[in-house]
Amino acid sequence: MTTRMARFHSLEVASVHQETPECIVVGFRIPESEQADFAFVHGQYLTLKLSVNGEELRRSYSICSSPLDKDEVRIAVKKVPGGRASTQLVDKLKPGMRIEVMTPMGNFTTALDGSKARHFVAFAAGSGITPILSILKTVLRTEQGSRFTLFYGNTDQDRIIFRSRLDELKGQFGERLSVHHILSKGVDEDMLFNGRITKEKAVQLLQRFVSDPMDKEFFICGPEQMMVNVSEALENQGVDKKHIHIELFTTPVATEAKKPTAVEDTGDFDGVSEVKVIMDGREHLIKLSTKGDSVLDAALDAGLDVPFACKGAVCCTCKARVVAGKVEMDMNYALTDDEVADGYVLTCQTHPRSANVTVDYDQH
């Protein structure tokens, strides 16, 4: 995974395609001088910075293009009811406009190996198809012996994002790609493909279509309840959690956050900590109460241009490494257990728990 510092760049909008009445696909032109900064892996996202009625908004959107395609980097934006950023983008964005875009980030991915033959299985719903499409295209082109099965939930056929593109890919890859649409307002004779993706339906889909002996990787992206249902179905089927990849768009309500133990236990401390923030090779000292703001908020208040997007423990944009001292996170939905063990934290959720703490954003 990349160790570069997250930065915003002004990018030109190369294309805007109306995918469905509520969804557009946006392509960004990446100058040759910035190709290295915007190199990404399948499943990652971009964070956009917008001004809406004088207020700065940051929103993350998954990349739908494959890193194997070099012409553009594309994202999908679905208009959310009441969503200020998505409404402005869907209603007003035109080719030729420029937007502040942060370099790619995200852990919703897995390493690929051309010598392997695996079965990749994805459950998506609505705009959750966006990172799945990037993963799907990259997997089938990189691992020639692997196959991909997609279970894709939507309200009805008119709201299926990338419907024609999925049909094209099915024609291109044949039996290596299976796509099963599950419509909540469906009228299919087979009731398995009607209604929402419940835990019971997920089990039935797995038993019918994913019973082969191949090694498997599972990807889940969509509304929270669907992801909970599928995750429980997979775990009940005995799937190891390290093979289950989940992408959250909003801070969960039903799922339980991973609350890790504090980093580097140096004893109890309750007072004001001196936090050293390292960014771009420079050190900045901040006084921060253990019961006060997060490290991220304190750094922003001090005028530091530290990276962030959601502030809800969902993305990993504000990720940094604790290289000295003890800290604790309130919530963590984005970092893996291995990353936490290596000292990485989400600074939007991090509070000092020792008199001195050093947080390094350069070790992202």
Structure characterization notes:
- This protein has 364 residues and is of the alpha/beta class.
- It folds into three domains: 8-102, Translation factors (Elongation Factor Tu (Ef-tu), domain 3); 118-247, Nucleotide-binding domain of ferredoxin-NADP reductase (FNR) module (Rossmann fold, 3-Layer(aba) Sandwich); 272-360, Ubiquitin-like (UB roll) (Roll).
- 19% of the residues lie in helices and 32% in strands.
- The protein is built from seven helices and 18 strands.
- It has helices spanning 84-92, 129-142, 163-173, 199-209, 224-236, 295-301, 337-341, and strands at residues 8-20, 23-29, 45-52, 55-62, 73-78, 98-102, 118-125, 147-154, 177-183, 215-221, 244-247, 272-279, 282-289, 319-324, 327-329, 344-346, 350-352, 356-360.
- The strands form four sheets. It has a six-stranded antiparallel sheet with strand order 4-3-6-1-2-5, covered by helices on one side. A five-stranded parallel sheet has the order 9-8-7-10-11, sandwiched between helices.
- Strand 7, helix 2 (129-142) and strand 8 form a beta-alpha-beta unit.
- Helix 4 packs across helix 5.
- The longest helix has 14 residues, at 129-142.
- The radius of gyration is 21 Å and the shape is globular.
- The termini are close together.
- The model has no long low-confidence stretch (mean pLDDT 91).
